[in-house]
Amino acid sequence: MNNPKKFIKKPVIVEAYQVSEEVKIETLEGRMIASPGDWIVKGIHGEKYPVKPDIFEKTYQPIE
Description:
The chain is mostly beta strands. Helix content is 11%, strand content 34%.
């Protein structure tokens, strides 16, 4: 087995907005449904993907 190393993700600034109704979005994995309260995140290559509110809160923080 190889000797695993530890890494930390580089900080990346993304745009996101929260939806108040069910929304269908096209993602790299195909069409997905975002539920009310989910966040739609625009990735560094312009891709969009839904994120559940609890995961969004743990993963992202606003910048001033």
